[in-house]
Every structure is written in C-alpha cells, then in structure tokens.
Amino acid sequence: MNNVGTLLKAVDIHKSYAQGTGELEILRGISLEIKEGEAFAILGSSGAGKSTLLQIMGTLDRPNRGELYCEGRDLLAMNDEELSKFRNSEMGFVFQFHHLLGEFTALENVMIPCRVAGENVKEAKEKAQHLLNFMGLFDRKEHYPNQLSGGELQRVAIARALVRHPKILFADEPTGNLDSTTSAKIQDLFFKLKEEMKLALVVVTHDLAFATRFPKVYRMKDGLWQA
Ligand SMILES: Nc1ncnc2c1ncn2[C@@H]1O[C@H](COP(=O)(O)OP(=O)(O)O)[C@@H](O)[C@H]1O
Ligand SMILES: [Mg+2]
Hints:
- By secondary structure, this protein is an alpha/beta fold.
- Helices cover 35% and strands 28% of the residues.
- The protein is built from 7 helices and 10 strands.
- The strands form 2 sheets. It has a 6-stranded mixed sheet with strand order 6-7-8-3-9-10. Strands 2-1-4-5 form a 4-stranded antiparallel sheet.
- β4 (65-70) and β5 (73-74) form a beta hairpin.
C-alpha cells in the first residue's frame, strides 16, 4: 500500500453464499483501487454483484476471502465497533431509496451521523444547515420526509452522507427511483459536490447516460470485471 494517493484498495475479493449443498459465488476475485478525489461508475446488469461489491468496499459487509486496505490500515482486521467508527468518519453512502427517518425533520436527519460520532448539537446543526443550503434546500430544513419530493429526499440523504466530510462517497443506484429530470439534477449535484468537497465518488448505476459522464467506467459481469 505505498501507492501515493490510493485511498482504498481491495484485492482479490471473493464472496459467496451457501446454497443447498453447494455455494453461490457472487464475487469471484475482484480487485479495485480508489484514488483520492477520483470518480468512477460501475455498470452491470442486475445480479452482477455490484451492490455486494459496494457493501464490501464500504465495510458494510465482509468478504469470504480477499484483502481491504484504507490508507495503510487493514480494514478486515478491525472488529465491528472499530469499523463502524471508521466508516462513520471516512465513508458516506447513498442508496436508491433515501432511508431517512420519518419522525425527524430533514435537518435532524442530516445531523444524525454527527450526533452518533459525539459532536455537540450546535456544531452538528451548523454543519447540517450549511450542507442543506448548499443542496438548495434552504427552505425545506424543517420539513419531514413525507413533506418532501423524491428529488428533495435524495438531496437530504446525500447531505446526511456528506455531513462528516467523508473521503469517499459510495452511491448505489442513487437515481434509480427518480424521473429523468430529477435524475439529471441529482447527477449534476454529485459532480458539483465531488469538486466542492474533494471527494472520491463511486457510483453504481444502470443508467448508461449517467455512467458515461464519469471519466472512468468499470463494467461488471457475474462477479468479475468485464474485459
Ligand atoms: N444475502 C444473500 N444471500 C444469498 N444471495 C445473495 C445475498 N445477497 C445477494 N445475493 C445474490 O447475489 C447476487 C448479486 O447481488 P447484488 O450484489 O445485489 O447484484 P447487483 O447489485 O449487481 O444487482 C444476486 O444473484 C443476489 O441474489
Ligand atoms: Mg444492486
């Protein structure tokens, strides 16, 4: 792990699930590096293993075999508590569905990762407000999820993913649930945020038009990179 600028490095990742008497192989030896501030898309048909890979890269799931390093740290040697702390400060996640908590306002939802990390309310609130303003949600901060549109919900979810200034943002089909106009706006927002926050951005998508906006696209098939 001496490569300058490498943030995350996954080596020969295997993942399988027991199925009857045999094994269902989902990832069959995938390697990948994420460099500081880079952006790429991962394309592949349904069932290719994209979400599984993203979850493993993001330490939300563990591989059966393989190695995973972040800036010299061996992530697979960490226990779950160490990992969740690490994840909460270094990585952000956005999914197809927003997963906001319905009983909290947009602002409160964005503050949650800060509160989990032990930041005080005032500091968390300032950061969350700043980010929501940047997202164009200045007048939506006190709204509850059921009072927001699909695009607004996704913007709040993105703010929540970024509020602790992670180095990497992982997004799994982040526009999969949006109409094309809203999708285009969310795509623009990702690229704007990437520049503004100097993030590495990894996006899994079905949308070829979205994928081709990235400087680099990896294609995945049956748990392997496609040549
Ligand atoms: N917990 C699990 N148990 C068994 N099979 C799983 C599990 N999670 C995912 N799979 C299977 O792994 C394959 C890849 O899933 P996934 O990574 O979600 O693919 P993609 O995101 O590319 O559509 C699918 O065939 C799926 O059914
Ligand atoms: Mg998926």
